[in-house]
Amino acid sequence: MNSAYFYEFLGTFILILLGNGVVANSILKNTKSEGAGWVNITFGWALAVFMAVTVAGPHSGAHINPAVTVGLAVAGLFEWNLVPGYILSQVAGAFTGAVAVYLYFKQHYNQTDDLGLQFATFSTSPAIRNYRSNLFSEILGTFVLLLLVFFIAGPSFEADAIGKVAIGLGSVGAIPITLVVLGIGMSLGGTTGYAINPARDLGPRIAYAILPFHKKGSADWSYSWVPVLGPIIGAVLAATLFLFI
Questions:
Q1: Radius of gyration of the chain from Cα atoms?
Q2: Which residue of 12, 34, 150, 212 has the smallest Cβ count within 10 Å?
Q3: What are the structural domains of the chain?
Q4: Residue numbers in the chain where pLDDT is lower than 70
Q5: Are 17 and 97 contacting, i.e. CB atoms less than 8 angstroms apart?
Q6: What is the DSSP letter of 169?
């Protein structure tokens, strides 16, 4: 399974490079697409998922998200002993992807005085800070993600599990999961930035905390537990419902 860990790393790296990349491209000062807006960002994130799943799907199942890994394990479709390795690979891939975004856009970071915009290219933050409401947003968004994964994949999950084939977002197909993520972003993303993925938020948050900037704000660790705990709860709830029905 060492190759699966590598592809989880690579898939998550691609996810963050292109996902955080579209945010940076849209909001940092003096890029050619500065001000492109929310629609551009949601489509860019959906395409980032498409590319990540295309690369990792055949080799690791393309979980690229600890919530997916935990949700599949709760549903009995993934071995618990593989969960720590998958999650570590995902967080490492997300961290590395965020560093790559920083290096790619470094000159534009130097020209961006708004530290909130700077941080937004790394990790999520709420539009209105209310931890209970923010947690609910992340729970529900991830619940929708996992529930759609279970329903779209359907019986193929069972066949994959029996055949010992890697399962994950790749079992759904790159295009369907792209549309799921696009729909979540368009409909539910405006409250918290729809992390719906602990690695997607935590890895870049760690990177932001340690990278050297000309001027830098806080990594907002007081909020960091929301996009970690919320998606895990949402995934467990979706898996539980899947088992029940």
A1: 17
A2: 212
A3: 2-244 (1.20.1080.10)
A4: 1, 155, 158-165
A5: yes
A6: G
